[in-house]
Amino acid sequence: MTPKAARLADTAPVLILALIAGAGSFTHIRDTAIEHGQTGWMAWAVAVCVDLTCVMAARERQRDRKNGRERNGWISWPTLVLTSGIVLSLAANLAQAEPTPWGWITAATPAGAFLVAVSMLERRASEPRPEPSSDLVPVPSAVPETTPPAVPDQNGPVAELLDYARRVAHEHQARHGKPITRDTLRARLGVSSQLASDLLRTLRDSPETA
């Protein structure tokens, strides 16, 4: 089985369970809202708010764990929101149940299954992803560049630094088809702007002399 097929086999049952359980819980919440005066689109809005609040709170709990913001010793705000949404969903489901033990159990099943599916998805989303092996990461081969000689910053360029600057300028001209600028020369040589200006002026005044 390919990794993609394995992920689909693991995730599909949980997603299907979440959809079916959410639909059942949604129906009970909508019917309860209608019985208590929230008719028309408002009944649907109440049901959507309750179910989506649970999903949103579960995602926020997972984000808090990832960012290290999960509190110890006290319930966090996303957990409180998730708990409140579950209580509302269970209450609506039980309100639609036949007043018998099995009636309450069967009516509460969609809300419980929805909670289980959301918690499973939350748990899987919080699993750390394996780090890529360093043996499989290609290391680009380093292309050594000619480094400028260590010459102290001074007012006038010396012959050795001038020769190196001329090679850099010729290489830039050949590669880009235009003369090198002061800032580019300064970055390549690692010298001050004033010294780069002196070098560039000397190269322009005597381009073929060392």
From TrEMBL:
Keywords: Membrane, Transmembrane, Transmembrane helix
Keyword Transmembrane: yes
The organism of origin for this protein: Nonomuraea africana
InterPro entries referenced in this protein's UniProt entry, alphabetically: DUF2637
Residue numbers spanned by region Disordered: 126-156
Keyword Membrane: yes
A Pfam family it matches: DUF2637
Stated name of the protein: DUF2637 domain-containing protein
Transmembrane residue ranges: 12-29, 41-58, 79-96, 102-121
